[in-house]
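User: Teach me something about this protein's shape.
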Amino acid sequence: MAVKKSLEKLSPMLLAVLSNRFDGVVREMTNTLLRTGRSAVINSGRDFSCGITTADNKLFATAEGLPVHTYGLDLQTKTMCRYHKDINEGDAFLHNDPYSGCSHPADHTIIVPVFWEEEHFFNVCAKAHQADIGNSIPSTYHVMARDIYEEGALIFPAVKIESKGQLNDDIVRMCQRRIRVPETWHGDFLAMLGSARTGEKGIQSILQKYSPTVIKQFVSEWFDYSERKMREAIKKLPKATI
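Assistant: First, the predicted structure itself:
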């Protein structure tokens, strides 16, 4: 998503409105996943997070996500872009590779690129801890694991799970065969996919209402604003030596 700064900045009111609109999209994704997740890990433990990154893979919005989940989303979408040069509307990717951004193999992530008028603008991510991932013991917290192969039996480095809206049933069957609770996993998988598609539609409605030009400018100004706030916060820290 190429960004050209306009000579006339957006009003503070519009910045606030758009910021809350994007946060609202993430919260809607969160509520969707919470209410439709099949496992207690999701619908009771709330061990999941949702977020948005830009098309050039900058973390953009996380609302109330868990930091351990959200701070690597940009690395995960960067992996998607690195492995897939031909990304299209309707695609979805399954990612849980800790060597390319994921927190650990048990945190499956669904990534959906968001397009408007054939241009890639954002990526929406739904990440959730799974009840089982088919590792060496019936648990997804293998504290005695000596390497990634003991902790996670199935590693997906941004594998395309949907292509232009068509589900890859082979990958689904592979997961159901390997994972000890196939129905629970499949229910959570569909909940994550539904959450991501909810985010996709929410962002597209924003683009339709405010225009791509305004949204591009908002993204640029919002990152500038966040940088200023961070600099101000750092300046207030007491001087010290390390």
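Now, about its shape. The helical segments are 12-36, 40-43, 67-70, 73-83, 148-151, 169-178, 182-210, 212-235. The beta strands are 48-54, 59-61, 92-95, 107-116, 119-129, 159-163, 166-167. If you'd like, I can walk through any region in more detail.
User: That's plenty for now, thanks!
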